């Protein structure tokens, strides 16, 4: 049931006004109409029976949005769980369970349940959503509720789309922006962005280039200290002479700096009156050092103690192409993309000493010596993704409208992760090879290893795993205007997915010979064959969507929707392991989502007020859940572990009370409940508990005032955001389930503009709030991902 006080606050906040779509100040006091492509057609956001919220280009600029974390925090009813740049997952409408360790989530984890798109290209990946720097972006669209019929796999809870600006044929445009900021007790940040749009052949060919470099200063300190394994925490250390680790060589203030560097090129070519071709290529390098979660309880505010180097290099290239044209009355779009992404990451893993059953074996000789207990992870993840979509649409003015298409996708994830224990060298453990291969193999071709060479000295165990997904789908949506006011839409998608998990997970434990002897490793090819598991694993099905919309007049739209979503199945690398009580399944299936919602969109007071919202009920069954458990199941496993229900309401308002003042905002309330938690390998919270990372109440409020000052256009803006308490995980053992505190943040800015130049002073996190965005024990120590401390900055822009 809803809590009466919080629901009352939500209703009051709705009438007050909160974050919404696009900035809208105009002398006519009419809110700007925003076009979105949430239905695979270009339509006004106010005219479609879909719950969609968008931050337009001007709004992104006004809010100083630059990366993933920025635009997520300005979207109501959207949350994220993660540990820093390029290491986050998106959640919508409270449909969240947990965020697992990034060193395990790609090849071995669940697929996300919110799809992320860059233009027409799906770019989602578990635990590592593509962190695209927000420059020259036309809008960010958030489609809430299952969108599987049109946007396919992983669109269970919704879809987030970043839409870039495209080359314009008829205008030269140049924009430069530079920024400098200082963070309380942290390093300076700076940014430089440039965009140029060049018409090359009149009405035929145009080129657009956007480039950027942003350096974000650190604010978390790695402070000096030592670590000593404690037998009271892990009995594996009982009776052993324990040595301490020191982080003296890694001590550094403000060590979590990051940088984004990239370029996007687009070419728009008009072939003839009916056909055009768009080519785009984006390259980005993201680098980060340190960690973005701190340990205020054991170490101090914005402080940690790390004993192994933490660093991240995340680069991607995305090439996309779109051919649009018309044959007779049919609009035809073919779009394709190729994504090539590589992530190299190093991180401290010393906390494994507190949970690993055999960890002392890797560290001590069990006679008279234990060596340095510092441990780390060094991994490389390569992700390639090819997608093709062909769709046909009938004219919008027809009373019977059809969108139909076919989609194909081929995804490959190559995951190589080395767990490095320096003590292995002191103990004389040999180098290890992937299972199924050695220098003396007579048939090494049979190996599925990505890297068949020996691992460096000191590697205790490693993953060498390939995950492949191939999908073919056919989809369609049919809308019929029953009369001038009433319309019905039916959507269907048939999908067929093949999933493979190949390779091995190897350990040097017991490896007396050093070559191809591996007591605890899994040669996954053989494992599936012995268990009678099909490779590839196939899953197919049909999902549906039904919508009824009613427009009593031009200013009001009412709609009701039933929709479903899906995500790919997965293998369990640790399948078959277990104890007397539970056994880890070899595979897990897609979880099912039944979403019922009713919404409204209104434009009132002579176009000066928009009030939109929806109420919804979600039945979520056989929820895919991941758990990190090195004690029993060899690090990590998956399960269809529970069922849940979600009841919620959300609303957004944009209001122009005067020609100078704009009030915008949103509110959401979610009541999440675990309805069934049958016995399984995963020890989840009991029935009646709330889901994870699902704050019941979220609020955003923003005001912007514009006037003339000394012949210049002046403005001030202030905003406040509130997020309620939330649980960190649904898993209660061996991971801890923590209650994350509620938090409120405040931002403000003041700016001046003239025809070509503009400058702005801004402050983010004015009250220097330490938001608890995500509490994790992913490295076996409790740490809290927090927001950036109070930051003061200045931006200068030039438009030609």
UniProtKB/TrEMBL annotation:
Q: What is the lineage of its organism?
A: Bacteria, Pseudomonadati, Pseudomonadota, Gammaproteobacteria, Cellvibrionales
Subcellular localization(s) per the UniProt record: Cell outer membrane
- What protein name applies here? TonB-dependent receptor
GO biological process, any:
iron ion transport
Per the record, membrane topology reads: Multi-pass membrane protein
Q: What do the Gene Ontology cellular component annotations say?
A: cell outer membrane
User: Where is the TonB-dependent receptor plug domain positioned along the sequence?
Assistant: 45-159
Q: Which InterPro entries match?
A: Beta-barrel_TonB, Beta-barrel_TonB_sf, Plug_dom, TonB-dep_rcpt-like
Q: Which CDD domains match?
A: ligand_gated_channel
**What keywords is this UniProt entry annotated with?**
Cell outer membrane, Ion transport, Iron, Iron transport, Membrane, Receptor, TonB box, Transmembrane, Transmembrane beta strand, Transport
- Specify the signal sequence span: none
Segments passing through the bilayer: none
SUPFAM superfamilies noted in UniProt? Porins
Output the Pfam families linked to this UniProt entry: Plug (PF07715), TonB_dep_Rec_b-barrel (PF00593)
Q: Which family is this sequence assigned to? A: Belongs to the TonB-dependent receptor family.
Top-rank taxon of the source lineage equals Bacteria
Please list the residue ranges annotated as the TonB-dependent receptor-like beta-barrel domain.
313-766
Q: Does the keyword Transport apply?
A: yes
């Amino acid at each position: 049931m809803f809590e009466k006080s919080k629901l009352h606050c939500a209703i009051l906040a709705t009438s007050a006004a909160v974050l919404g779509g696009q900035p809208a100040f105009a002398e006519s006091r009419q809110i700007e109409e925003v076009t979105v492509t949430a239905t695979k057609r270009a339509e006004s956001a106010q005219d479609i029976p879909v719950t969609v919220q968008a931050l337009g280009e001007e709004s992104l600029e006004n809010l100083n949005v630059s990366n993933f974390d920025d635009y997520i925090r300005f979207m109501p009813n959207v949350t994220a769980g993660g540990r820093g740049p390029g290491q986050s997952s998106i959640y919508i409408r409270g449909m969240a369970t947990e965020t697992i360790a990034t060193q395990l989530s790609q090849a071995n984890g669940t697929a996300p349940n919110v799809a992320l798109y860059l233009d027409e290209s799906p770019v989602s990946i578990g635990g590592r959503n593509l962190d695209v720097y927000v420059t020259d972006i036309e809008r960010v669209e958030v489609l809430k509720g299952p969108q599987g019929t049109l946007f396919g796999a992983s669109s269970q809870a919704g879809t987030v789309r970043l839409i870039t600006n495209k080359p314009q044929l008829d205008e030269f445009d140049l924009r430069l922006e530079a920024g400098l900021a200082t963070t309380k007790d942290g390093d300076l940040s700076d940014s430089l962005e440039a965009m140029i749009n060049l018409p090359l052949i009149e009405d035929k060919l145009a080129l657009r280039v956007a480039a950027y470099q942003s350096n974000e200063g650190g604010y978390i300190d790695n402070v000096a200290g030592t670590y000593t394994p404690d037998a009271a925490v892990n009995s594996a250390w009982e009776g052993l002479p324990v040595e301490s680790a020191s982080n003296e060589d890694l001590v550094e203030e403000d060590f979590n700096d990051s940088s984004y560097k990239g370029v996007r090129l687009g070419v728009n070519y008009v072939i003839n009156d009916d056909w055009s071709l768009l080519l785009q290529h984006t390259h980005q390098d993201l680098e980060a050092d340190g960690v973005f979660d701190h340990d205020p309880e054991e170490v101090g505010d914005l402080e940690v103690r790390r004993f192994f180097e933490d660093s991240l290099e995340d680069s991607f290239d995305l090439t996309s192409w779109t051919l649009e044209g018309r044959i007779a009355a049919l609009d035809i779009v073919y779009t394709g993309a190729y994504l090539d992404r590589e992530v190299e990451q190093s991180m401290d893993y010393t906390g494994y000493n507190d949970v690993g059953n055999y960890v002392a074996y890797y560290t001590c000789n069990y006679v008279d010596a234990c060596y340095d207990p510092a441990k780390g992870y060094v991994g490389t993840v390569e992700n390639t993704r090819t997608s093709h979509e062909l769709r046909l649409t009938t004219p919008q003015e027809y009373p019977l409208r059809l969108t139909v298409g076919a989609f194909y996708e081929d995804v490959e994830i190559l995951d190589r992760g080395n767990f490095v224990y320096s003590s292995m060298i002191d103990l004389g453990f040999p180098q290890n090879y992937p299972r199924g291969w050695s220098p003396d193999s007579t048939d090494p071709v049979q190996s599925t290893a990505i890297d068949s060479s020996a691992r460096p000295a000191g590697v205790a165990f490693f993953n060498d795993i390939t995950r492949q997904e191939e999908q073919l789908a056919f989809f369609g949506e049919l809308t019929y205007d029953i009369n001038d006011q009433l319309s019905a839409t039916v959507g269907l998608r048939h999908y067929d997915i093949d999933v493979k998990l190949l390779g091995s997970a190897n350990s040097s434990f017991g490896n007396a010979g050093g070559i191809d002897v591996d007591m605890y490793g899994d040669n996954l090819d053989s494992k599936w064959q012995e268990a009678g598991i099909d490779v590839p694993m196939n899953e197919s099905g049909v999902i549906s969507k039904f919508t009824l919309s009613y427009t009593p007049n031009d200013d009001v739209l009412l709609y009701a929707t039933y929709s479903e979503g899906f995500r790919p199945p997965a293998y369990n690398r640790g399948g078959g392991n277990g104890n007397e009580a539970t056994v880890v399944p070899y595979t897990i299936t897609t979880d099912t989502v039944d979403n019922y919602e009713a919404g409204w969109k209104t434009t009132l007071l002579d176009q000066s007020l928009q009030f939109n919202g929806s109420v919804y009920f979600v039945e979520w069954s056989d929820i895919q859940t991941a758990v990190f458990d090195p004690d029993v199941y060899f690090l990590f496993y998956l399960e269809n572990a529970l069922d849940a229900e979600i009841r919620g309401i959300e609303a957004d308002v944009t209001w122009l009370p005067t020609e100078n003042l704009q009030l915008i905002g949103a509110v959401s309330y979610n009541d999440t409940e675990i309805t069934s938690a049958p016995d399984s390998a995963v020890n989840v919270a009991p029935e009646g508990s709330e889901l994870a990372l699902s704050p019941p109440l979220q609020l955003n409020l923003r005001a912007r005032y514009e006037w003339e000052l000394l012949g210049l256009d002046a403005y001030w803006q202030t905003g406040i955001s509130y997020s309620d308490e939330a649980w960190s995980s649904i898993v209660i053992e061996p991971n801890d389930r923590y209650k994350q505190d509620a938090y409120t943040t405040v931002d403000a800015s003041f700016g001046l503009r003239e025809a070509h130049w503009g400058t702005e002073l801004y402050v983010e996190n004015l009250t220097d709030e330490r938001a608890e965005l995500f509490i994790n024990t992913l490295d076996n120590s409790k740490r809290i991902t927090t927001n950036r401390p109070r930051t003061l900055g200045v931006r200068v822009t030039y438009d030609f």
